[in-house]
Amino acid sequence: MTGTALLALVAAGSALGAHLLTRARWTWRTPRTAIALWQALGLAWGLASIGTLLGFGVAPYDDGVVAGIGRSLRDPRPLSPIHLAALAAGLTLALMLLGVLMIAIAGVVRARRRHRALLALVAHGDPEVPGTLVVDHPVAAAYCVPGVRSQVVVSAGTLELLGPYELAAVLAHERAHARERHDLVLLPFTSLRRMLPQSRTVARTLDAVELLIEMAADDRARRHRPAKELATALLRFASAGSAPSPVGTLGIIGADETNPILVRVRRLLTPDPLPRRVRGAMLAGATLVATLPLILYALPA
Fold first, then answer.
1. Which residues contact 236 (CB under 8 A, 6 or more apart)?
2. Judging by DSSP bridges, how do beta strands 151-155 and 142-145 pair with one another?
3. Most buried among 46, 65, 248, 261, using CB within 10 Å?
4. How many CA atoms lie within 13 A of 97 on its CB side?
5. What CDD domains is this protein classified in (predicted)?
6. What is the DSSP letter of 27?
7. Hey, is 154 helix, strand or coil?
8. Element (H, E) at 250
9. Which sequence spans correspond to the domains of the chain?
10. pLDDT tens-digit readout, 152-190
11. Is there a contact between 18 and 209 (Cβ–Cβ < 8 Å)?
12. What burial class does residue 220 get, using C-beta atoms within 10 Å of its C-beta: 0-12 exposed, 13-18 middle, 19+ buried?
């Protein structure tokens, strides 16, 4: 079987894996590992899809993807119009994926710049929550603005809603978002959503990754604060109807059909992590999935 055929199988397998992973619940037991697996599947799908098109385009050279592309640049005469079209489609897909990602990054940067400018006008410090900006708004809200100098923001409604220990747990959750740069994890998935807005699988993928990111931040916060404090704070946010986080930020998400607060509360109070050896095997598998397309690119025909 040629490298091109194997790349096609990897692309199809990655899409199928993503579809199955959107329905999986074991991922909640190990959110960080599951996020790594999601990233590996996304990378493998993109590289394998591009490689399949490029590989078919240079198939007449019978020399693999990388070597075939090199030969096509030197002497394209053996390529028929169909093979040239496949080669062009592969390059176009690569440029589209990269371009959509760049557009998403630029949009997030602009949104954060605008929001930081707005915070400079309306937010202020508070000695009760050092290192945190407070916005005088009655609706409960808490979020972080990621970046080189990340900022955690809470509303006056949050300060009234939560007790001091619950507030400390929420701040630990938001700082976990900033410390682990969860915004960078989300960018490829939000850009793919922009590219394929009608795809239900992509929409479910983004929802699944967003929930896993919240769970990962919950776990990080639980290292510093008792789980009960954050669980109680989440329930208070849910009952109060918290405000949505601004574009380009990460925050406490509300309780609706797509954001199951009760699931997060349950796993906080009754944690059931996967054994370390299982997590290690999953990380090894994710690494293999992510690197396999690159190996197939170099595989001779």
1. 140, 161, 162, 166
2. antiparallel
3. 65
4. 16
5. M56_BlaR1_MecR1_like
6. G
7. strand
8. strand 250-251
9. 124-270
10. 999 999 999 999 999 999 999 999 998 988 888 999 999
11. no
12. middle
